[in-house]
């Protein structure tokens, strides 16, 4: 018998085809004009050998080896029954809470989880830990932590990042030049957080070019966008933008009326551009050796910006680097000098090349989401300061003008994320990860995180439960019907947490006396009411569930960012101290941070091609988002597996760099620096700049000797190489993109990939 069930993943809505109780395919949704190839991975992943079949506990943990001992990851796991597992976890929460306080329970649990908004594992965990007394959480996110912290100082809020951003339709109509710092890789446009239908990045870029917009990609990678490619050295965009600003200033091309009316502090930037204090003019001749872009190219680009209606955009990647505040701040300053901010299709924007749904019209109604509970502990760390928190209990640090203290972490509880995917400098994390007494993880699969836990609870995948998909950047609400029964002994995160809350006497505080079906109705109806308040009628829950989706009509026209402010800056002040765009921020200057002073500056990162370290590690590693999966998700799916070279993650390199090292396409290579090493499969392409190599994130960390920090990752996870340092004391965001490496042929016997199979377990 064949059944067809509407369903969704972060990489798109689909129909689950079920034959005799078994998922056979994920068929793209009819209304999706460019379905993601990642749908092809779902069936293989759901039945992958790496599914966790029952609860497990680490052998040493059960025997009493809890804190500060040997690093986790190298031991066997013993099978447990569910009752015992739930009792152990509840007992640990109660014990740590009583002995050390709620802040010693780290429940930040950063990660994307899956698309369904009710069974969103991280959100469910937060609700459970809030109900049981509190936890330490995480502020901001890995995507744009630094931008999120910086932008309120500069333009008053974070709408320029979270959206709505400048519409593609306005760019096509009103802009003639679009300079994309970070370029555009269409693979990134496959994804909406929460699932979506409209995959429009490629179509929009192509239509913009056809409409006469000249597209310029500034990126170490060519990407797929049509138009010109300026292959910049990574982490040097601020120098390029400063030099463009210099040209605008000295050639009297800057819009001084705009600067005077809408901004503060341009004089300080102008003095810096001319080198008043440091004697260095930030001229194209100055920027050329830093950026690798010729002076005449910089001059011509600056003049074109002044001559043509221009929009300047940046990918989020630019701020995931040391001093990542600077390119975002300088982009705003450059756009202000061009005077286009607040006019249709002009000004500055972030993220058009980063993720699906940026710059496409959507009526601003809240997406479907699970409401939170107040966290009584009120303890948080900036998202990417995880390792430092573990290394340095009670230690002080700076963040955004405040002096904060790390908690003393005794228990880590993670559900719906994967720090052994997402965090930088995994060998350093592995050492710090030995310190807490207990680590609990919920996962459907034996991911690297699950392998480094003490108590592992198997979660269902979305296909095994009913849910609702909904993204803040897409117009569709998606019914996710349960398609297959839970695999093995897996259970829904919600029901696991409800049982833990039960042992701790707070089941009803956690569930609010609702079951799954009631929750789905409540969540949907909240969005339906919000739509009604905006004058939009959508189907009631039953009709929505039956139809499988609801479409929220696009608005007839969309607001132009900053247009109200530009129309009347006195009546529509920005939420900055001056009410205007702050090219100089007195508030930031007042923090006294040398790594993020009062206006945008060029500051050399520790690791980039111009750094002294490049003598030893002459290649800049860019670890971008994978086109073949979502982060670490679906690495065990067919699309990702088929892309590997000799089983290793592909590393892209320019043919000249390969020749210099005597390497050939298809070679297995060792990528290394002082922090770690991994193997990768070599791919040669002229689409990466010389001196740059690209290794996507997400190949599951597979150490040759599990539990040994520094051990070679035989599979190709770039985070054994990346730097774990805050962007600055202001943003404290992740700095993954500032990373130097060297590459050599492996030439020895190839160690097997073990990470897609379960670790050693004892089932008795
Ligand atoms: N070097 C480098 N590192 C990076 C980046 C980079 O550019 N370079 N980018 C960063 C960015 S922007 C991000 S957003 C992060 C992403 O980092 P993460 O969001 O942590 O990565 P995911 O692999 O999506 O992790 C989600 C996990 O949830 C699990 N999961 C899915 N569904 C369920 C469920 O129902 N229940 C439970 N319990 N678990 C479930 C999945 O199996 C998966 O392991 O990575 C960051 N890391
Ligand atoms: N298929 C797929 N799509 C995804 C994701 C995924 O895992 N898989 N993840 C999603 C998530 S969580 C996020 S946050 C977004 C992230 O979106 P981004 O942060 O924008 O994505 P990245 O892929 O890291 O980088 C985008 C581009 O920036 C360029 N770049 C990197 N460093 C520099 C630099 O120093 N200067 C310049 N000029 N360019 C640079 C890279 O070459 C790349 O072309 O992607 C989303 N989309
Ligand atoms: Mo992200």
Topology of this structure?
Blueprint: E1 2-9, E2 12-19, E3 22-28, H1 42-46, E4 56-58, H2 59-62, E5 77-79, H3 82-100, E6 105-106, H4 121-131, E7 136-139, H5 145-155, H6 159-162, H7 168-174, E8 177-181, H8 201-210, E9 214-218, E10 228-230, H9 237-250, H10 256-262, E11 263-264, H11 266-273, H12 284-291, H13 295-307, E12 310-314, H14 325-338, E13 347-350, E14 379-382, H15 386-391, E15 396-399, E16 402-405, E17 411-415, H16 419-422, H17 426-432, E18 438-443, H18 448-451, E19 455-458, E20 467-470, E21 476-480, H19 493-503, H20 507-511, H21 516-533, H22 541-547, E22 549-551, H23 563-567, E23 581-582, H24 586-591, E24 619-622, H25 638-643, E25 650-653, H26 655-660, E26 668-672, E27 677-684, E28 692-695, E29 740-745, E30 761-762
Parallel strand pairs: 5-30, 6-17, 7-14, 8-9, 8-12, 9-10, 11-23, 12-13, 17-18, 18-19, 24-28, 25-27
Antiparallel strand pairs: 1-2, 2-3, 4-5, 4-19, 15-16, 20-21, 21-22, 24-29, 25-28, 26-27, 26-29
Helix pairs in contact: 3-19, 4-19, 5-14, 7-8, 9-12, 9-13, 9-14, 12-13
This protein binds ligand MGD (2 copies) and molybdenum atom (MO).
Structural class: alpha/beta
> Helicity range of the residues?
25-40%
CATH superfamily label of the domain at 165-361 and 561-591: Dimethylsulfoxide Reductase, domain 2
- From the 3D structure, determine the CATH topology of the domain at 165-361 and 561-591: Dimethylsulfoxide Reductase, domain 2
Lateral strand order in the biggest sheet: 6-17-18-19-4-5-30
Q: Total number of β-strand segments?
A: 30
Q: How large is the radius of gyration?
A: 25 Å
State the separation between the terminal residues, measured CA to CA: 37 Å
């Amino acid at each position: 018998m064949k059944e067809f069930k509407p369903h969704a993943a972060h990489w798109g809505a689909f129909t689950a085809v079920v034959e005799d109780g078994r998922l056979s395919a994920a068929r793209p949704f009819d209304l999706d004009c460019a379905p993601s190839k990642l749908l092809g991975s779902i069936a293989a992943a759901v039945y992958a050998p790496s599914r966790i079949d029952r609860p497990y506990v680490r052998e040493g943990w059960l025997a009493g080896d809890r804190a500060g001992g040997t690093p986790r990851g190298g031991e066997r796991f013993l099978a447990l029954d569910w009752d015992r597992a739930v009792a152990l976890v509840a007992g640990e929460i109660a014990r740590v809470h009583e002995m050390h306080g709620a802040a010693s329970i780290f429940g930040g649990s950063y990660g994307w989880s899956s698309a369904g908004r009710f069974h969103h594992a991280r959100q469910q965990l937060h609700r459970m830990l809030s109900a049981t007394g509190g936890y330490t959480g995480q502020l901001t996110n890995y995507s744009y932590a630094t931008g999120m912290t910086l932008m309120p100082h500069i333009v008053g809020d974070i709408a320029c990042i979270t959206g709505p951003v400048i519409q593609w339709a306005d760019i096509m109509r009103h802009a003639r030049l679009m300079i994309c710092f970070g370029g555009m890789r269409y693979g990134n446009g496959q994804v909406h957080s929460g699932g979506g239908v409209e995959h429009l990045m490629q179509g929009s870029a192509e239509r913009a070019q056809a409409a006469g917009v000249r597209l310029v990609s500034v990126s170490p990678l060519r990407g797929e966008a049509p138009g010109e490619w300026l292959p910049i050295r990574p982490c040097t965009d601020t120098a390029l933008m400063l030099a463009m600003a210099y040209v605008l200033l000295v050639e009297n091309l800057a819009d001084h009326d705009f600067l005077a009316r809408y901004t503060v502090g341009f004089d300080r930037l102008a003095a810096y551009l001319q080198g008043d204090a440091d004697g260095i003019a930030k001229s194209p001749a100055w920027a050329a050796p830093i950026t690798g872009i010729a002076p005449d190219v910089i001059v011509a680009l600056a003049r074109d910006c002044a001559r043509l209606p221009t929009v300047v955009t940046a990918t989020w990647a630019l701020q995931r680097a040391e001093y990542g505040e600077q390119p975002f701040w300088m982009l705003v300053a450059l756009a202000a000098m061009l005077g286009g901010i607040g006019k249709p299709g002009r000004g500055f924007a972030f993220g058009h090349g980063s993720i699906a749904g940026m710059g496409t019209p959507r009526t601003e109604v809240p997406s479907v989401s699970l409401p939170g509970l107040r966290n009584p502990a009120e303890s948080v760390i900036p998202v990417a300061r995880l390792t430092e928190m573990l290394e340095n209990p009670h230690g002080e640090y700076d963040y955004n003008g405040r002096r904060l203290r790390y908690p003393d972490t005794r228990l880590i509880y993670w559900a719906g994320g994967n720090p052994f995917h997402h965090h930088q400098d995994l060998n350093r994390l592995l050492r710090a990860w030995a310190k807490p007494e207990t680590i609990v993880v919920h996962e459907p699969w034996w991911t690297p995180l699950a392998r480094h836990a003490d108590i592992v609870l198997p979660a269902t995948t979305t296909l095994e439960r009913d849910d609702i998909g909904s993204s803040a950047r897409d117009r569709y609400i998606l019914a996710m019907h349960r398609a297959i029964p839970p695999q093995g002994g897996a259970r829904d995160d919600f029901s696991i947490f409800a049982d833990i809350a039960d042992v701790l006497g707070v089941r009803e505080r956690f569930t609010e006396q609702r079951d799954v079906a009631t929750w789905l109705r409540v969540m949907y109806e909240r969005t339906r009411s919000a739509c009604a308040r905006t004058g939009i009628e959508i189907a009631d829950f039953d009709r929505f569930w039956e139809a499988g989706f609801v479409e929220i009509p696009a608005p007839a026209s969309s607001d132009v960012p900053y247009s109200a402010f530009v129309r009347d800056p006195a009546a529509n002040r920005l939420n900055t101290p001056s009410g205007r765009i702050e090219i100089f921020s007195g508030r930031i200057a007042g923090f006294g941070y040398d790594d993020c002073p009062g206006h945008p500056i060029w500051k050399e990162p520790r690791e980039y091609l111009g750094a002294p370290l490049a003598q030893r590690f002459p290649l800049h590693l860019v670890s971008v988002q994978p086109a073949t999966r979502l982060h670490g998700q679906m690495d065990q799916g067919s699309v990702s597996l088929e892309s590997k070279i000799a089983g290793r993650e592909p590393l892209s390199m320019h043919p000249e760099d390969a020749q210099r090292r005597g390497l050939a396409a298809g070679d297995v290579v060792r990528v290394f620096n002082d922090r770690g090493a991994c193997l990768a499969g070599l791919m040669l392409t002229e689409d990466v700049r010389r001196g740059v190599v690209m290794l996507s994130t997400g190949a599951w960390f597979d150490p040759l000797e599990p539990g040994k920090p520094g051990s070679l990752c035989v599979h190709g996870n770039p985070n054994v190489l990346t730097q774990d340092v805050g962007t600055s004391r202001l943003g404290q965001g992740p700095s993954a993109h500032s990373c130097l490496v060297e590459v050599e042929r492996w030439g020895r016997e190839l160690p097997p990939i073990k990470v897609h199979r379960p670790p050693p377990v004892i089932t008795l």
